[in-house]
Structure of Cyclophilin-like domain-containing protein:
Amino acid sequence: MYGCHGKNSLKQDQFSEAEKGRKTHFSKENTDSEKEKPIKIQVRTGELVIVYTLNNSQAAKDLYAQLPLTLEVQNFGSNEKIFYPPKELDISNTPLANAEKGSLCYYAPWADVVLFYGQFQANSDLYTLGEVVSGEEDIQKLSGSITVTAID
């Protein structure tokens, strides 16, 4: 006999079958696939749509929490567009950026989000938020008012 319930207790093989069912229901595969669903945002102006996948950093989560946003995009240098979210992003646990073409980054000293359409050298104050998924060729064409929204 197992447990303290006498005749009504599960036999070892019955317990094992019940336990297997729980393991299948709460399997690592099920929970991991839910956790790893990519978080995507889109940047839109007129007919142009650029889609980014965000990383799991605190700064990316902070940006996502502010959506939807409608704001002005600005040219900066010869390789990037920038915009200023209403609230600064928390850079704790946010990786430094390589600032490659298609990178979505955050420049902490100015509290601006950077959309790279060209290469840029690494900077100790530049953090990566995500990478472009589609529309990379249109980043350079962004101008004026943009809308940044979550994609479900």
